[in-house]
Each structure stands twice: as structure tokens, then as C-alpha cells.
Design brief:
alpha+beta; Pdz3 Domain; 4-stranded antiparallel sheet
Length: 390
């Protein structure tokens, strides 16, 4: 497992010089974030492979020439490689780091050796090993979010309106200062952040908003306008805007201590929100509702990592959680070369009772490689445009 990580890593270095800000400002936070996410992804493959009785030859953080490493008691070579921009796990019977089978080696294996090879495992075991990588990414994200909630609790501002901008969507809908948003499209709103999340991804969509106006329930209809907003780092984002500001009154500031079980639930909810928002955005791009120029590549991740690192280590760890969800979800897409592509082949094998032919799988992987490379090129183009215009 790890072909997608190597494909991604092979072209990262060429874009980092465009970021500026020095090595410590961008490169180190970027490598920290990426290495943690990649390690847990590959460790998911590794640990389930071990549980299934598969021999693991190599566990590498990075690729290329080895810098340092050691052999564990099971014969696995754990190593750090020269280009720390990805990683892979190599199983017994693999021809390369992308887990391509070595046909000659597989044919020459004895029965006892086949029992240790990934390629001779049952469909269910192979699927479990493959899905374990993305699953580990989701578990990592949930754990990170849960720990942050346990340590810092949940701080929030009431969804109380302070001001309403003239000629805004909120003004057209009839919002008034002092209104407290209670629900949107039937979904309860606990704080201002809840409202922002829904509104930001609902540009051009009519929302039914229930507010509390001095004790009286009022139902308003509002359609958030799509606008470009610049964040604190100068990055532009296109999101839905109502045109209201939140109350900054101390009485509207809420602090809620969070117990470990609550923190885990909130970690799951935070992870699901990222998944839901990502899928919603991709669906919007497909139907033309969203702009594809929001897609970013490695240079974008490096830029954000450097910016977030300036806020503090906790913020950087939170970014690890967010990126871990994204990497886990990306790898589940049914594209040959990614984990989801392997799962697709295994599903077909389970239905047919036999695997696809070597020729069919080769064609599939070539198509998958073409799709991944095209996405990389497109994302890199967006990175370059964003960097040159910011």
C-alpha cells in the first residue's frame, strides 16, 4: 500500500520554493503534518496485515534512498527515506512500493510462503488490509479532535445577531439585531459557528431560518449570497454570506466542559462534518454549483501548514486531523491506484468468484494513474495561480 502517497510525493519538492517564508516557516510544519498523516495511514495497513498473518517487508516514511532504519523481530525493515513526502508498506510478494505483485516470485512460492503473501490472502482479508489505511486516518482525526475538546472544552458564541448589513440577504429576509437563530432547515443551532457552517456552504440556496425575537418564534426565508471573503492570512474563499455579525456581549459567550465520552462523540461529529462538507463540495463541482479552483495541491497544504503553525502547536495538530480526514476520504474514492480502486477490484472479484485478468487490472491502474496525475496537475495549477495572485 502507498502508491498514491508516492505519486503525490514525487512532485512536491518542485513547488515548495514558491512559498517563500523560509524553511522553518513552511517546510517544517508541512513535513510534520504530512508525515504524521502518512504514518498513521500506512500503520493502518501494517497492523491489519500483521493480524492477517501477512509478512511485511518494509515500512517506510518517505521514499528514495534510506537514511536510517532498523529491523524488528518479525523481519520488517522500518526506515526513514531521503524524500520525506509520502510513505509505503511493502508486503511479501510485492514487486515494488506500490504493492504491484511480482508474478515470477508469486509463481515460485511454496504453500507456506503463499500463506504469508498479501496476494494469496482471501478477498475479505485483502479488503480489510486495504481499508485499514483510510480507517486509521479517520481514527486519528477523531482522537485529535476528542483530545482537543477534552483539554479546552467547547467555547462558543450565541447565535445572536448584533448588526444586519444593509442590502444583504439577511436584511432582505427581515433579520433584526437581537434575533437569536434557533434552527436552520429544521437543524438545531447551538451557537454562531453552527450557523456559519450551514450558511457558508449554502450559497444560492433558500434556507428556512427559525429565530427567537424577544421570546417570540419567527420563521424567516433567506438565500445566502456567494461572496469572496479574505481570511486572516490573506487567502480568498468563496462562501455563502447572510450579512450579519455576531453579538460580542460577554453574556453570549458560552464555555462547556467536555467529558471523555462527550469528546469522542464530538470528535466523530467534527470528522463527519469534514467528510460531508468535502463530498458536498465535490458534488457541487460536478454539477457546476461550486468552482473547481478551490481545489488545492501540496503547495497549498504547505502554505496553510506554515500559516497555522504561526497560531500555535494545537492549531497545527488540529490541521493534522483535518488533513487526515481528507487523505482518508480521498483514498476511498473508487479510482484504480488508490485504496478505493483496490476495494473496487476486490468487490468485482467477490461477485465474479475470481479476480479480473492481469490485463484488465493493468488497464485499470493506467486509467487510475492518468486520473490522479490530471488532478495533481490541475491542483498544482490552482496553487500557482493562487500564489502568484495573493
Amino acid at each position: 500500500m502507498g502508491a498514491s502517497d508516492n505519486v503525490m510525493g514525487s512532485y512536491l519538492l518542485s513547488h515548495l520554493h514558491a512559498l517563500g517564508g523560509g524553511v522553518s516557516g513552511y517546510l517544517i510544519p508541512f513535513l510534520f503534518v504530512l508525515s504524521v498523516v502518512v504514518f498513521f495511514h500506512e500503520f493502518g495497513h501494517f497492523i491489519v496485515a500483521r493480524l492477517c498473518g501477512v509478512r511485511v517487508l518494509v515500512f517506510s516514511i518517505g521514499f528514495g534512498p534510506e537514511l536510517a532504519g532498523f529491523n524488528d523481530r518479525h523481519g520488517t525493515r522500518w526506515k526513514i527515506s531521503a524524500i520525506p513526502l509520502g510513505g509505503y508498506v511493502r508486503f511479501f510478494g510485492d514487486e515494488n512500493a506500490g504493492s504491484a505483485p511480482s508474478t515470477a516470485q508469486l509463481e515460485a512460492m511454496s504453500a507456506s510462503e503463499r500463506a504469508l503473501s498479501f496476494h494469496f490472502q482471501s478477498v475479505l482479508k485483502r479488503a480489510a488490509i486495504v481499508v485499514a489505511g483510510p480507517a486509521a486516518n479517520f481514527v486519528l482525526a477523531i482522537a485529535i479532535f476528542a483530545v482537543i475538546f477534552m483539554i479546552y472544552g467547547k467555547q462558543s458564541m450565541s447565535a445572536r445577531v448584533d448588526t444586519v448589513q444593509p442590502d444583504s440577504a439577511a436584511a432582505a429576509a427581515g433579520f433584526q439585531p437581537g434575533d437569536v437563530v434557533v434552527a436552520i432547515d429544521g437543524k438545531p443551532i447551538a451557537d454562531f459557528a453552527d450557523m456559519q457552517r450551514i450558511v457558508s456552504e449554502s450559497a444560492g440556496e433558500s434556507l428556512t431560518i427559525k429565530v427567537d425575537r424577544k421570546g417570540t418564534p419567527i420563521v424567516l426565508k433567506a438565500t445566502p449570497a456567494l461572496k469572496e471573503v479574505r481570511d486572516n492570512f490573506g487567502n480568498m474563499h468563496r462562501i455563502g454570506i447572510l450579512g450579519i455579525s455576531r453579538s460580542m456581549d460577554v453574556a453570549d459567550l458560552k464555555f462547556q466542559p467536555v467529558s471523555p465520552p462527550q469528546a469522542v462523540v464530538m470528535g466523530v461529529q467534527e470528522t463527519w462534518f469534514i467528510v460531508d462538507r468535502t463530498l458536498s463540495y465535490i458534488g457541487g463541482v460536478i454539477v457546476g454549483r461550486e468552482s473547481a479552483d478551490e481545489l488545492g495541491g501540496p503547495a497549498r497544504i504547505a502554505q496553510i501548514s506554515g500559516q497555522v503553525a504561526k497560531i500555535g502547536f494545537v492549531a497545527l495538530v488540529h490541521l493534522v486531523g483535518v488533513l487526515s480526514v481528507s487523505i482518508g476520504l480521498l483514498n476511498l474514492f473508487p479510482i484504480p491506484l488508490l485504496d478505493g480502486g483496490h476495494l473496487l477490484f476486490y468487490a468485482i472479484e467477490g461477485v465474479r468468484g475470481r479476480p479480473l485478468s492481469d490485463r484488465a487490472q493493468e488497464v485499470g491502474f493506467r486509467i487510475g494513474l492518468a486520473i490522479v496525475v490530471m488532478l495533481m496537475i490541475f491542483a498544482t495549477f490552482n496553487d500557482i495561480v493562487r500564489l502568484t495572485t495573493s
